Amino acid sequence: MQGHAPLAERMRPKSLDEYVGQKHLVGDGAVLRRAMKAGTLPSMILWGPPGVGKTTLARLIAAESDRPFHALSAIHSGVKDVRAVLDSAKRDGMFAGRALLFIDEIHRFSKSQQDSLLGAVEAGTVTLIGATTENPSFEVIPALRSRCQTYVLESLSTEVLMGLVQRALNEDERMAQREVVVAEQEALLRASGGDARRLLNTLELVVDGLEPDAEGRLIVTNEAVTERVQNPHSNYDKGGEAHYDVISAFIKSIRASDPNAAVYYLARMVEGGEDPKFIARRLLIAASEDIGNANPTALVLANNTFQAVERIGWPESRIVLAQCTVYLATSAKSNASYKAIGEAQAWVREHGEAPVPLALRNAPTGMMKDLGYGKGYAYDHDAQGGFSGQECMPSGMEGTTFYRPGNNPREEAALAWLKARWGDKYGY
Description:
Layout: H1 7-10, H2 23-26, H3 31-38, E1 44-47, H4 54-65, E2 69-73, H5 79-91, E3 100-104, H6 111-123, E4 127-132, H7 136-139, H8 142-146, E5 149-152, H9 158-171, H10 173-176, E6 180-182, H11 186-192, H12 196-208, E7 218-220, H13 222-228, H14 241-255, H15 259-271, H16 276-291, H17 297-312, H18 317-329, H19 336-351, H20 366-370, H21 409-422
Parallel strand pairs: 1-4, 1-5, 2-3, 3-4, 6-7
Helix pairs in contact: 5-6, 9-12, 11-12, 11-13, 14-15, 14-16, 15-18, 16-17, 16-18, 17-18
């Protein structure tokens, strides 16, 4: 039966020495190696993307620690299943505190299901190993996180992934019987999405569909992969961490004036099926926060982009979004207005609300006029040059500066304009 199992299952490591990647956790002298040797293995959360070896690592830890191993899937298991395992561990006094309970996709457990683990983990009835692709900060309750160590599993490098391919071609019985040559690797890696399990199973799918060439070889090319894998997998999750990571990288690439990186992250969101209005909203924010008065037209374009996206949707919205993205990334930048409102809000929170000067107050009634509301107000349009120089700050705040023009041509011109009118009053 083993020969009929998928290639990824047939190639599953049987010892930590065969395990690839995650050297920071299981390499010589690494934290989990040391804990296993010392017999002090903690309860833990293994956090990482799909196909990087979380389940395999849990099984190898159990095997090499010679501990009883219980595995549950959060998709198919509930509180009843958890309690059954915990009761079994309690009854087996010989293994009390040594049994390992592995819960795959632990982030899918509800709060009450996660709560059911707390007592046993704290008492040491079992050592918990939870695996998740989602950020534990959001998906695992604080009480359970505090009782576990969180270990981050890294994405597998191209070198590691292709090493797995070569190992499969050399060591797997079915593969070794055939002369397989991987002539091109780009499509194979793209189809895997960095998932080692998907990589190996895709390789087998492609090889099984190939016809030998004149020399009897099975040649894996980009074309051969794309013929059999029409839609390369995307790890983008509109409701998960990728949603926040990619949009963060997108905005920061625009801020860094890197249109190439910005368009790449935009493509990630497009391919992942992100809501186009979500992207357009973030472009609107970036146009004001990061570009501001260095180029006010950016906000106009971003607003028009949002309206266009509302009208046309996918797939054509990608064109409009790309245009706006490139425009913002290649625009002059200023966060002076953004900083100004932040500093002004901080001042109000710290000092409270100072009274508005009487001259600037509205006076819609006779009583208000008698109280001096609006008295002495200088209408700037009637002053020479349209500038009266009247004091607008509340008493005690004269000369307080919140807005400091940015270092760009348009705001440098604004700075010269302000200096000509206010002199040194605001430190310009």
